[in-house]
């Protein structure tokens, strides 16, 4: 509890530091919203023309798009510098975090905290519009709302675990940006759309080796299409916690292999 309280204090200090440059904050928020809006607008135009994609409607794809966006926004807001561990390893700044009286991971997560407001706002707008349309069509009911909230939270845990595992590899190879392009950036983009579009081998990778498909696609099959059964969402949450535990163990192993730039 003391560590969590310290984390909260460090986060507030980081927010105050960022808000000293309010114009930069709002400009970057607007720019992020425009970029993401253009990405979704492109697929929306295609679906508006042809009606569906592999049997998935515009609103179902919007649901996948919004849930993974919100999960990613939570992960990158609360643990942004986990994604940027490479710069600490290269510069030697990780040594400064090691001497702090809190766990290294907590110290790293509190560095350069940023609220991804553009992603949050756009993701919520898309999600609300899609949920409303799916409810009006009778495809889902009000029970889908708490289920969706659980999917977003579980997805954030899975994305954080993937990011943590990828960053930990940096304790051995130092440069992990190219690996992150695959395990985080490319995989996140892939599951914005139905995995039915991809060949079986790629689906296997996105569900096992890089299990980003567990963050939105698999639970969405139950919420949107009532596939499998009510056990699916608890099973997905259990998988997320087990996967996070494994990555935390991997992180501790990585720390034990870390050699300071001065050693």
Q: What does this protein structure show overall?
A:
It holds the Pfam family ABC2_membrane_6. It comes from Paenibacillus foliorum. The chain crosses the membrane at residues 21-48, 113-131, 143-173, 201-224, 231-251. This is ABC transporter permease. The chain is mainly α and 263 residues long. It has helices at 2-18, 22-50, 58-78, 85-91, 94-98, 104-109, 117-136, 144-168, 170-173, 177-190, 200-209, 217-225, 232-256, and strands spanning 52-53, 56-57. A two-stranded antiparallel ribbon has the order 1-2. Helix 8 runs antiparallel to helix 10 (177-190). The longest helix is centred in the first third of the chain and has 29 residues, at 22-50. The chain is globular, with a radius of gyration of 19 Å. The mean pLDDT is 85.
Briefly characterize the structure:
With 263 residues, this protein is mainly alpha-helical.
């Amino acid at each position: 509890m003391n560590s969590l309280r310290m984390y909260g204090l460090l986060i507030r200090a980081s927010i105050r530091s960022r808000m000293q440059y309010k114009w930069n904050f709002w400009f970057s928020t607007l720019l992020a919203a425009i970029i993401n809006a253009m990405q979704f607008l492109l697929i929306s135009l295609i679906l508006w023309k042809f009606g569906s994609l592999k049997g998935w409607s515009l609103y179902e794809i919007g649901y996948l798009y919004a849930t993974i966006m919100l999960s990613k926004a939570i992960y990158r807001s609360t643990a942004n510098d986990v994604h940027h561990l490479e710069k600490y390893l290269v510069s030697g700044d990780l040594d400064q975090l090691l001497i702090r009286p809190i766990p290294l991971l907590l110290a790293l997560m509190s560095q350069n905290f940023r609220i991804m407001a553009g992603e949050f706002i756009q993701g919520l707008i898309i999600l609300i519009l899609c949920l409303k349309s799916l409810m009006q069509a009778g495809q889902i009911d009000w029970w889908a709302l708490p289920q969706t909230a659980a999917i977003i939270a579980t997805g954030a845990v899975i994305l954080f675990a993937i990011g943590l595992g990828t960053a930990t590899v940096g304790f051995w190879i130092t440069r992990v940006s190219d690996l992150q392009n695959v395990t985080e950036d490319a995989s996140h983009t892939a599951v914005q759309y139905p995995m039915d579009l991809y060949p079986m081998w790629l689906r296997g990778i996105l569900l096992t080796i890089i299990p980003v498909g567990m963050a939105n696609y698999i639970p969405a099959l139950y919420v949107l299409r009532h596939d499998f059964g009510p056990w699916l969402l608890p099973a997905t949450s259990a998988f997320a916690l087990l996967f996070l535990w494994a990555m935390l163990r991997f992180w501790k192993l990585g720390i034990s292999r870390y050699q300071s730039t001065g050693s």
